[in-house]
Amino acid sequence: MGRKWNNIKEKKASKDANTSRIYAKFGREIYVAAKQGEPDPESNQALKVVLERAKTYSVPKTIIDRAIEKAKGGSEENFDELRYEGFGPNGSMVIVDALTNNVNRTAAEVRAAFSKNGGNLGVTGSVSYMFEATAVIGLEGKTADEVLEILMEADVDVRDILEEDDAVIVYADQDQFYAIQEAFKNVGITEFTVAELTMLAQNDVTLPEDGQIKFEKMLDVLEDIEDVQRVYHNVDLGE
């Protein structure tokens, strides 16, 4: 297991102080999920997953409703789902997921973010083999043993269950995301500290000070790109 999720989320929260940026990215992701299937989370599992994630980031209902209504209204706006893989300073590994209506623009902006900050884009598969697609679900008020018992009763497979700070975090294959949440909801647990589908690095790297500064700048530039939804990496950002 790679980094503890609470450490990742704390660092992400410090980077994502601009909540309007977070909300805009969720609005786009909700619209795409609703447009690709039924605009009803009860019959569209992809949409349901996005809405569960949005809930843990306190995305306002107005933004969620606006994105779903836009999809219902038959908007002609279409987005391509793209994944870029590359290397940051000192050989660090980075995965960038984007939703874009202009592939050339996004490619140029992502390439520039890498090249101007000591990194370079790689080919598909160049770094993703060092990451694991993972469902991460966290909750408070239970012990790891109690969570394990709930999931065993529901016959849900998980990779790991860890107590991290004041929460219990469940790590599993992404296809178990919905089953884990249903297992908890069946015993009355409906609030989660985290509900994410992510890419976790198998191993972290610690960069020298100059490499760390370059990497964090690159990370900021990538996350500021409008079309970039999420960035995954294998760097220990420290305290």
Automatic annotation (TrEMBL):
Domain TACO1/YebC-like N-terminal: 3-74
Recorded superkingdom: Bacteria
Family membership: Belongs to the TACO1 family. YeeN subfamily.
GO biological processes: regulation of DNA-templated transcription
Segment forming the signal sequence: none
Subcellular location(s) per record: Cytoplasm
Protein name: Probable transcriptional regulatory protein GCM10007380_27530
Family annotation (InterPro entries): Integrase-like_N, TACO1_YebC-like_2nd/3rd_dom, TACO1_YebC_N, Transcrip_reg_TACO1-like, Transcrip_reg_TACO1-like_dom3, Transcrip_reg_TACO1_YeeN, YebC-like
Coiled coil spans: none
Domain TACO1/YebC-like second and third as annotated: residue spans: 80-235
One annotated Gene Ontology cellular component of this protein: cytosol
Keyword presence, Transcription: yes
Molecular function, one GO term: DNA binding
UniProt key word Transferase: no
Keywords: Cytoplasm, DNA-binding, Transcription, Transcription regulation
Transmembrane segments: none
Main localization category: cytoplasm
